[in-house]
Amino acid sequence: MKILLTIFLSAICSSCADYVTSQTKTVSSESVILSVPEGWVLYPSPAADSSALQCANYSRREWKVEPSESKVKIRLDKLQDHQASLPAIINSRSVAVGTKGYRSVEQVDDGWLVGLDVGEFGGGLWWFSSDGKSSKKLSEDRIKGFAKTSTGVFAVTGLAHLSFDDGKILQIGNGTAGNRKIQTLADLGSAPQAFVVESSDSLLILTIRGLVRVKTSGITEQLLATKYQQLYPNSMILLSSGVIYVGMRHFVTRLTPTENGYKEEWFVPDNCTQFKERDYDCVCLSKEK
Question: Is 213 domain-assigned?
Answer without folding.
Answer: no
